[in-house]
Specification:
213 residues, alpha/beta, TIM Barrel, eight-stranded parallel barrel, 8 strands, 42% helix, globular, Deoxyribose-phosphate aldolase, DeoC/FbaB/LacD_aldolase, cytoplasm
Length: 213
Amino acid sequence: MNHLFPYIERTLLHPGVTINEQYEALDEVTQLGLAGLTVAPFWVKKFRRELGDTHPAVLSSVVGYPYGYQRTEAKQAEIEWALKDGANEVEVVLNTSALFSPTSVWLKIEFAKLIALAHAQEKLFTVILESSLLDREQQLKMIKLATDAGTDFIKHVTGSRQADFSLKDALLFRQDVPKSVGVKIVADGATEADMEQLVSAGVERLALAQPIK
């Protein structure tokens, strides 16, 4: 499956992640030529030192993970620290609680503030939805909101909730997101054939928490 390596991001966000596990993932990124590595905010500075400043792999960190219901100011502080520590990209979790409440107007304001903060430093920005919690109308609404705000990527789930991989849902998500915006799919449980279909459909990034075998 080496033809898929340039699309794969290793993602290490479970609460029990160890330093050895992260070094093993780093070896995969550097030896296999993977697209990137996503780590918890605590580890960004260390793995920027390990990768160096010129390595082509993207070092990403999460913000507002896993529920997204932090104050906007807290997310701003997380972004500032992640970028200062050397992240090339931030993945920000949608405040689903706000979406389900009459205050959903604040999501537009939050996206505008956070995306502007990352783009001012020429870094990538990903909005993470939790599609399993959204009906189709809500999902389409959030995709449009994130797209209009200028996000670089939209990711369909956080990966923190136990859920079986669905190729059908993943392909529909790529179809729903405008081609001007990249799509990330959490692909744990997907077969090599599934991942090939996703890439052929225009999915730019495949996030894998498990080691590549």
